Amino acid sequence: MNLTxxxxxxxxxxxxxxxxxxxxxxxxxxxxxxxxxSGEATQLQMQKAKxxxxxxxxxxxxxxxxxxxxxxxxxLTSRSLMQKQSALTLVGPKGIKQFIxxxxxxxxxxxxxxxxxxxxxxxxxVFEDSKFRVEAKLLQHRVPSFGYRIVEKDLPAKxxxxxxxKDNIQIDSHYxxxxxxxTVTLEDGRTINGKDYQGAIKQGKKLAILxxxxxxxxxxxxxxxxxxxxxxxxxxxxxxxxxxxxxxSTTVHAASIAKQANAKRLIITHISPRYSLQDNQKLVTEAxxxxxxxxxxxxxxxxxx
Length: 305
Ligand SMILES: [Zn+2]
Ligand SMILES: [Zn+2]
Prior knowledge:
Blueprint: E1 2-7, E2 21-26, H1 27-30, E3 32-36, H2 42-48, E4 56-60, H3 66-69, H4 72-79, E5 88-93, H5 96-106, E6 115-120, E7 124-128, E8 132-138, E9 146-152, H6 161-166, H7 175-179, E10 183-185, E11 191-193, E12 206-210, H8 217-223, E13 228-232, H9 240-245, H10 251-260, E14 266-269, H11 280-288, E15 294-296, E16 302-304
Helix pairs in contact: 10-11
The structure holds zinc ion (2 copies).
């Protein structure tokens, strides 16, 4: 799993930062891309980062403020021009369906692939298959804003073939049973327990990508024990009152959530245009005073999970 920040600015873009969008690259795990938020110029940022629109499988919107939304029509309609067509699922707060329908109709645009829209009004399980599970919870912002917890399911243990060979065990006819950790009786009369020949279960990764919010319990729940938490940090701690008044968090708020949730790693993003890249050190240092394993996102920064 790989996370690339396509935009990291709050509210409006700057010369250094585009507005919110994050790509979760699951090409290794499932051959597809999952996009979180789609601020203005997201499709251009995707091109620069070499992400193909045709590989998009899911788009998750945290909320419908323009700095997270205004790039969506371009992403959806340009995707219709791609040669390879596949269905796309869009998840977002209630209102997203009307927004898309209106934009398509007014601009005389069209989509050439099936678009499945899931509108959220409350905490929900929004996606689940054999490999992944995505849960959404309502945060606290000026408009309904959701956070997402993405869980990769554990991969089943593999059989330790070397150990089986060493013990002179022919597994051909018992493979499935041994793999499931069951006890079998071999042709030579020996009884063996599959559990003794299983390797370690490969633990799936967990991450939380949260929308704009003030510190809240839902954030802690979503980020519980995750390998990586992406949390907004619109302001420095000195501007705490201003942050809260506008429904946002500070560097220290984000770090406190990571700490309370027992997350392994924190990336702060959604940085106010008042700060230039030269302020990164100051902002990240504030967060690290509470949660040491913090990094600050910049556009096109890439994180392996
Ligand atoms: Zn925002
Ligand atoms: Zn917002």
